[in-house]
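Hi R.,

Here's the chain you asked about this morning:
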Amino acid sequence: MSGDCDGALHYSAIIPCMRSRLARFVLASWLVIVIVPRSAYTQSQDSQEISRPSIPCPSPQEEPSPSQEISIANVTFSGFIQMPVSDQDDIASAIERNEHGSDLDGLLEEALERVKTGWQDRGYFKVKVSGDARIATKTADNTQIALFVHVDENSQYRLGRIEFKNNNAISNSAALRALFPVKDGDIFSREKITKGLENLRKAYGEYGYINYTGVPVTTFDDEKKLAYLDINVDEGKQFYVTDIDFQGLDQPSRQRLMKEFAVKPGDIYNGRLWELSISRIPILFPSCTCTPSRPAHLDERAGAVVMTVDLRSCLAK
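And here is the predicted structure, written out as tokens:
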């Protein structure tokens, strides 16, 4: 699938089309014949322009020093934009508040990805963005840039339905569907679909399916402006816990901790109970001031897992 999410949406793109960075945005100036302000979603020719305060931009030839902190002072959107101004302001404010660093290219890439995510969270799943940055202010320690983003929204989609395939271990599709915090007919939100996929992974983890993979494929009905999500379930093998290895503890402490663990040898692995047990370690051992490492050793053929809780580095502090 292409980086702009056209066509069928596969696993390589909905979790990272939900999470990954774009390989690289082309950050060059462009000629805009007609700039449509954010208020143009009214599609009224005589509507008043509503825009965020502009910041004068010095010469675009200036470059920030590699050692300087770079931040985004102002974000301006252009294009034929139908998204409400309030939503645009939310996206711009989040970028201005959170995006800063010392690498200009990386900063712009992150900012443009955040713009794209913001539009996709509001149903514009095929949105395309490109941007140009100019230095707004510059001091010895800090450079502030103004970011100009051209947005090609495309259509806004609503969710048509979600269906599951090959879900044998958990055959109740209605229960799986309830894990997604979005109803049929709602705006097709990338954020909510991502949350549902994470909930689905955790649900299978509670039944011992450590290697569960859900491969989502999205298709679009451009006439009805609907998105349909099919999730191809690869459950993998169900795993049982054969042993828990506590490292860095003496035998009495190991026995004490084992009694407190909600997952014990012989049980079906349960990811939720395992994480709950791990969270109790600082209560039982206040001197453990860090998160213990916990590698798992899987025997795929036998469906067995040996869990390791390594407390050596924690207790050493």
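One quick note: Residues 106 and 296 are 34 Å apart (CA to CA).

Cheers,
M.
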